[in-house]
Design brief:
The protein has about 400 residues and is of the alpha/beta class. About 40% of the residues lie in helices and about 15% in strands. It folds into 2 domains: about 240 residues, Type I PLP-dependent aspartate aminotransferase-like (Major domain) (Aspartate Aminotransferase, domain 2), CATH 3.40.640; about 130 residues, Aspartate Aminotransferase, domain 1. The protein has 14 helices and 14 strands. Bound molecules: pyridoxal-5'-phosphate. Pyridoxal-5'-phosphate binds next to helix 4 and helix 5.
Amino acid sequence: MRDFIQDAPDTYAAEPIPDEAKTAIDALLSSGDLFRYTSERAPVALLEEEFAQLLGSKYALAVSSCSAALFLSLKALDLPKGARVLIPAFTFAAVPSAVVHAECQPVLVEVDATYRIDLQDFEAKIADCDAVLISHMRGHTSDMDAIKALAFVYDVPVIEDAAHSLGTTWNGQNIGTLGHVGCFSFQSYKMINAGEGGIMVSDDPELIARAVIMSGAYEHNWKKHAIVGEIAARWQNRLPLYNLRMQNLSACVIRPQLGELERRVRDGRANHDYVAAKLLASDMFEVPAPLAPELRAPDSLQFNLRGFTDAQAEAFMAATTRRGVGTQVFGLSQDNARAFWNWQFIPGELPELPKTRAMLARACDTRLPARLTQSELDFIADAIIDAGHEVRGTDGAPNQ
Ligand SMILES: *Cc1c(COP(=O)(O)O)cnc(C)c1O
């Protein structure tokens, strides 16, 4: 029998980091200059300039993670203790965690079977909220035109968690630049890999200046953020220092990858659409289509199991694993960090969110990095389809 596991592509293996990073790191190791504030024009400062320009934002601040960027965004908006922050009920546990860390109260909003924010529930809850934190979960963009319009009416700021959406556009504009502030991750499973790291972008110099101080620009280090320096000077000694800075080694790993982004986005989208089309040929699976203004940058694939019972969905997960292609049903895999009922650290009682719960019970997740070859994509698609047939038998018939 064919050894599926041995033949299966390793979807967790990373792409090599471009060679330019080695040269930059060598120079850094020779000088020992790892701290971003030791020298002028340090790699972290250059990354901030380049990233802001790449996205079409005025300002950027590099930090230790996207979670740190989300936390600093909430703090920089000067939300009072206990402020209510609307977040989608389908996101990564780091998002409600950042809200709790900022001493705010997460308010969960329903997400539908297309992984997008349910606008009816959003509208019902926004009036009572002080800020909105939109998580573009796995790169799926909710209707940002409607969300921005409602946020404008209720006069609440919009933070974008674009951790997993670098390269996605909405009406041609980069995701992460639509709200007041956008946050990105450089953790290894995101589009740009530095192991860990994050960055926030905004056109609001006051917000960035406050975040600069709180990220750990102690004493006169704000001078090394020349672009917001004078505003930051006013906040000196008036804001706490949380020390969430990025170090120069990370910037040296990130900067040469910025030029790779366009290719990764193009290949990731092609890979996603190729496997999605194969799954859509069977009536066992549903792959939600993008919204018209959305141009995706996927590095993973989400699809819904159609007409499966819980037991069949569990059996499907096991059958894909036996074929060497791990798929996870978000709401059926134990302790999943994206299942809202596992966020028991949120103060108060967790709300009942039947739409989100139903979606999580059938939504599958599989990694699909941009570097995969066509034969690897075929392997993954075939494994998923075969696993479906194994579980459903002849009742998983192809679409007519
Ligand atoms: C990865 C991720 C985060 C957290 O990013 P870190 O850099 O690991 O803190 C937050 N939100 C979403 C949607 C993510 O995918």
